User: Which sequence fits this backbone?
């Protein structure tokens, strides 16, 4: 048997945000070093790990159900080791062992312990690692990335904002940043490996600070690695999006003109109750400054419907803010009470039916706005980085603009990562459709 065949196989399912996708690659990096090989199929796995999300109750329910299904498979394969990672591991701790009899439970700051905990699990003892850290950034770990053209790279971890609805500050702990030099050298390696796009990640990426450099410095340094590398970042808190950062984005061609800027609500009273630290007026002024300095910038947002005590009038202020900003896109959610957060104590007084109606109206409005915004691109030629075959047909390719819009066009002799010019002929609320007019590299 070769060494490769001897290695135990690990299968990871990732749920939730992009941070979790990046964390899964860190976990696989740690496990690869300790003699495990990743596998894409659960059936030949020796170890199954779920990297989980706690942000809303629905996300947690999905995991409980999935664990139930996996446990059934476990009964036919008693030697299979099952673990829970991520925010649910941090929040529910030993409850996960009690409820699902899983073997290991590991929170976001203890991934270095996974090999040791697995060793215990393989010899029959269950293990937990859920201590949060003020310093862990996994700076020295080489993530195990699938081949491709787009890479995730987490540059800071944790969140100190304590929005009253959010569980993240409790499951991911305090903010801490990697050093600029380690991020830049990882980006240099990514470019050497053929990656053409990198997304810098953090729960609150704008508050990146390594003691000497802020997020604008980091973005400028990463943009300088290779002018042909597309650089994205997410997610931004409005309070920390500085004018220096806006200028940095404006001044670098390869920094994508796309900002995800969660607003959550259009009502000052609700923003205050959420502890968002800005008013509607501040937020709109920030949007104004961004648009004035970065022509053609695309904006997206997160919106919560039915925060405790939200009146009909306050909810309509969210609609009017959406009309005012005219976002390119939005992620829209019903408020979900999370035990342990300050908002939890306010109760959950908006009836489910009212939340659903408000959310549906918010979604309908955003679809209308996205559709209209996308019509303004019809007739124009845009630069598209090819992702691969479109979801619907092999005869068509799909890619994204710098403004993060999906573009579908007839297949040609292009490979993922190529940048092509596409003239847009029509647009829906989610997709632009067009023809290649010229390719350039
Ligand atoms: N209920 C609903 N949505 C939430 N989010 C975070 N916490 C909650 C919650 N308790 C949303 C916010 C945030 C996004 C990642 O998830 O809009 O920006
Ligand atoms: Fe949660 Fe607010 Fe931090 Fe975002 S900024 S992770 S919503 S606490």
Assistant:
């Amino acid at each position: 048997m070769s060494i490769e065949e001897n290695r135990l196989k690990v299968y990871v399912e990732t749920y939730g945000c992009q941070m979790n996708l990046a964390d899964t690659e860190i976990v696989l990096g740690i496990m690869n070093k300790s003699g495990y090989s990743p596998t894409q199929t659960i059936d030949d796995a020796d170890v199954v790990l779920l990297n989980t999300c706690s942000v809303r109750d629905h996300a947690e329910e999905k995991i409980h159900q999935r664990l139930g299904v996996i446990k059934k498979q476990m009964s036919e394969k008693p030697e299979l080791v099952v673990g829970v990672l991520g925010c649910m591991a941090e929040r529910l701790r030993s409850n996960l062992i009690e409820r699902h009899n899983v073997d290991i439970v590991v929170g976001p700051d203890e991934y270095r312990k996974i090999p040791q905990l697995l060793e215990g699990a393989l010899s029959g003892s269950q293990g937990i690692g859920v201590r949060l850290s003020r310093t862990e950034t996994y700076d020295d770990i080489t993530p195990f990335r699938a081949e491709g053209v787009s890479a995730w790279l987490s540059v800071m971890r944790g969140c100190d904002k304590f929005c009253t609805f959010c569980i993240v500050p409790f499951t991911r702990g305090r903010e801490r940043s990697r050093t600029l030099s380690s991020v830049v050298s990882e980006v240099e390696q990514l470019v050497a490996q053929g990656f053409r796009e990198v997304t810098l990640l953090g729960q609150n990426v704008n508050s990146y600070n390594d003691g000497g450099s802020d997020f604008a410095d980091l973005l400028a340094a990463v943009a300088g690695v290779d002018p042909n590398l597309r650089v994205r970042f997410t997610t931004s808190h409005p309070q920390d999006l500085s004018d220096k950062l806006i200028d940095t984005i404006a001044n670098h061609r390869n920094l994508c003109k796309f900002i995800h800027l969660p607003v959550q609500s259009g009502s000052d009273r609700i923003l205050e109750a959420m502890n968002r630290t800005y008013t509607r007026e501040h937020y709109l002024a920030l949007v104004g400054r961004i648009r004035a300095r970065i022509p053609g910038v695309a904006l997206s947002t997160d919106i919560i419907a039915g925060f405790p005590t939200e009146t009909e009038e306050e909810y309509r202020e969210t609609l009017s803010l959406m009309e005012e900003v005219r976002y390119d896109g939005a992620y829209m959610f019903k408020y979900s009470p999370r035990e342990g957060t300050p908002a939890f104590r306010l109760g959950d007084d908006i009836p489910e039916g009212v939340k659903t109606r408000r959310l549906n109206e918010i979604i309908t409005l955003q679809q209308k706005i996205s559709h209209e915004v996308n019509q303004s691109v019809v007739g124009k030629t845009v630069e598209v980085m090819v992702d691969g075959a479109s979801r619907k047909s092999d005869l068509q390719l799909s890619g994204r603009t710098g403004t993060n819009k999906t573009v579908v066009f007839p297949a040609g002799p292009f490979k993922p990562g190529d940048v092509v010019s596409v003239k847009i002929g029509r647009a829906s609320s989610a997709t632009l459709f067009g023809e290649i007019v010229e390719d350039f590299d």
Notes: The chain is about 35% helix and 25% strand.
